[in-house]
Amino acid sequence: MENREFTVGEKIIYCTHGICIIEDIRSMSLSPALPEQPYYVLRECKRGSLIYVPVAGGASRMRDIYDKETIDRIICGIRGRKMDWNSDRKARTTLFKAIIVEGLNEDLLLMIRCIKLRKKEIVDLNKKLSDSDDDLLQTAEQIVNEELSFVLGIDEREVGDYIRGIAEEKDA
Q: What local confidence, expressed as pLDDT, does residue 3 receive?
């Protein structure tokens, strides 16, 4: 994530909360036991919730929204690559959660592909994906769908087709 000063009115990505607008930067104390300090006041664009992020340190979890070229470069980076399924549930969950916290990148796209392939394999055996893996998949897809939909100006339901189109494109 970035480490720069943000300004009121900017739209940014805040960890797993997705696209947020910076509504204010104000000094406040979130507890009587804590001294006043400056906070970014973020509003989630999708859900409308307010988030208070300390300017000192908290901004490291905020970043600019990627442009189309950056998104396409990330998608191209997964061509010919895959992530292997880890059968150790605890290790897999720890890894997937760490990937999700990092936000949109190649590992997140590879993780989504990995879980979807696993889901297809086990559905063919009349089994179902664990709730925890399914929740991680939904969270990861939400992160990707929201940012790509916003940047590309497409419906979230079209994001998967867009990714497949770029990821499967043959290098010229």
A: 65
Pick the CATH number of 11-64 from 3.40.50.150, 3.90.180.10, 3.40.640.10, 2.40.10.170: 2.40.10.170
Residues in the chain: 172
pLDDT, tens digit (0-9, with 9 covering 90-100), for 81-90: 999 999 999 9
Residues whose CB is less than 8 angstroms from the CB of residue 60 and which lie 6 or more positions away in sequence, other chains included:
1, 2, 3
Amino acid 8 reads V
Q: Where are the beta strands (DSSP E) in 15-137?
A: 18-28, 37-44, 50-54, 62-64
Taking the C-alpha atoms of residue 129 and residue 16, their distance in angstroms, rounded to an integer, is 22
Nearest CA-CA partner of 141 in 111, 117, 98: 111
